[in-house]
Specification:
The chain has about 425 residues and is of the alpha/beta class. It has two domains: about 35-255, no CATH class; about 260-420, GMP Synthetase, Chain A, domain 3 (2-Layer Sandwich). About 30% of the residues lie in helices and about 25% in strands. It has helices spanning about 1-25, 85-95, 115, 120-125, 150-155, 165-175, 185-195, 250-260, 330-360, 375-385, 385-390, 415-420, and strands at about 35-45, 50-60, 75-85, 100-105, 110-115, 140-145, 200-205, 235-240, 245-250, 270-275, 285-290, 295-300, 305-320, 395-405. Strand 10 (about 270-275) and strand 11 form a beta hairpin. It starts with a helix and ends with a helix. The model has no long low-confidence stretch (mean pLDDT about 85).
């Protein structure tokens, strides 16, 4: 009996010690209302070398929340700009004016001005990002045409009061259409350190510079789309990085082609327009799903290497403004099928030629498809993919439209009969 009491007390003591150990893990816990959550971070170049202006867009979680019982009007966000040398020091400096502790855990985007991205200081700035504990490397890198601070302050969504939701929705929608790339910070470091491919990031602006002539819906860069009303912010096209530094920009169409040719990315349903083969004054809208692209490289150490690119796609035509009979007449359907293949192939060929001649590198991550041909890393580096193999390679594009459908339309309207 006495032994049982001793064992019982010993057991209770063990339980108590375990509880103390578990509770000790909460000593540094902070309540939600004690923290200020940054939604986006903007970084700009200053007149002093390696000194940057950081802009923090801090969201007010109570605005737009159904659980908020405070009837008093509150600002949707607070925007604070400070000088700093890196993300961590700038965050601490910003806390001099913000009562709550600033945290970067919820930051969805890092917005960098085009001027800073094109400077040699940019890659040195980015080296501090991985060591900033709160900043997640799946945050999107966005390049703004103007100052990042101006971009954040001028961006005023009309339909979404919560800024974190705005960036989530706008980036998801644009990535689905393919007019901007998926560019997490971790991908920037992977491609930059690999030193064999180009990195592309979304290009955005709040400054309008519309083209005078109408082009295809994706043949624009940010700021060139002719829009009236709504938010002035535009996400279109991409910024091109070589060795960690921005060198150029791509249009929405060129960005879409780049994403199609990148086998490391999941393919989305993409909507695009093509010239009507029977009436070139009209465009045809089609949605196409690209199967996994196949890249075959015939590496020749002593001569020009051959690269064959195979793209299989399924197209669904859902808008034929010319009302030409492509569904009923098999001859016209074959003509449309061949025309779509030819137009898509030409778009791909045009971008590939541009990357070979202008950049001497590609944003498609094709270097992964040749590395297995070398026994060691030294052999691969000696072969020199970026300076010798890719710029001089003979690249052949093979596009096949596997299926052609016409959505829910059974036949086109007969305009002659309608007008009669």
């Amino acid at each position: 009996m006495e032994r049982q009491k001793i064992m019982k007390k010993f057991f209770l003591l063990l339980v108590f010690l375990q509880m103390v150990t578990l509770l000790s893990g909460c000593f540094d816990r902070k309540e939600l209302e004690e923290q200020a959550y940054v939604v986006s971070i903007g970084v700009d170049k200053t007149d002093k070398d390696n000194i940057f202006r950081f802009t923090f867009q801090i969201a007010n979680p109570e605005v737009g929340s159904s659980v908020s019982g405070n009837p008093a009007p509150e600002p949707v966000q607070e925007i604070v700009s400070v000088l700093g040398t890196d993300f961590l020091s700038a965050t601490n400096a910003a806390n001099a004016t913000v009562a709550k502790e600033i945290t970067l855990e919820q930051a969805r985007v890092v917005i960098v001005s085009q001027k800073l991205a094109r400077s040699k200081e940019f890659i040195h700035l980015m080296q501090s990002a991985p060591s900033t504990v709160d900043l997640k490397l799946n945050s999107q890198l966005v390049i703004s045409k103007e100052k990042a601070e101006d971009f954040i302050r001028d961006n005023k969504p009309k339909l979404e009061s919560r800024p974190h939701k705005y960036f989530q929705y706008i980036l998801d929608r644009a990535k689905e259409t393919g007019v901007i790339p998926n560019a997490p910070l971790v991908r920037y470091f992977q491609i930059t350190e690999g030193d064999a491919d180009l990195f592309i990031a979304p290009f955005a602006t709040t400054k309008k510079d519309p083209k005078e002539k109408y082009g295809e819906e994706d043949n624009y860069k940010a700021g060139e789309v002719q829009l009236k009303g709504g938010n002035i912010t535009q996400f279109m096209g991409s910024a091109v990085f070589k060795e960690g530094q921005m060198i150029d920009t791509l249009t929405g169409e060129e960005t879409r082609v780049s994403l199609i040719l990148d086998t490391t990315l999941a393919q989305q349903d993409i909507i695009a327009t093509y010239k009507d083969p029977l009436k070139p004054d009209f465009d045809i809208a089609a949605r196409h799903q690209v199967d996994r692209v196949k890249i075959k490289i015939d590496y020749k150490p002593d001569s020009t290497s051959d690269i064959d690119v195979y793209i299989n796609t399924h197209m669904n035509v859902f808008a034929v403004p010319s009302t030409e009979s492509y569904m009923v007449e098999s001859k016209n359907r074959k003509l449309l099928h061949d025309s779509l293949e030819r137009q898509l192939e030409e778009r791909i060929r045009k971008l590939v030629r541009k990357t070979q001649e202008k950049y001497k590198l590609e944003p498609f991550y094709w270097s992964l498809h040749i590395r297995h041909k070398f026994l060691t890393i030294k052999d691969y580096e000696k072969a020199d993919w970026s300076n010798k193999i890719y710029p001089n390679a003979n690249i052949r594009i093979h596009v096949t439209v596997k299926s052609l459908e016409f959505g829910k339309i059974l036949r086109e309207s007969d305009l002659k009969r309608v007008r009669d």
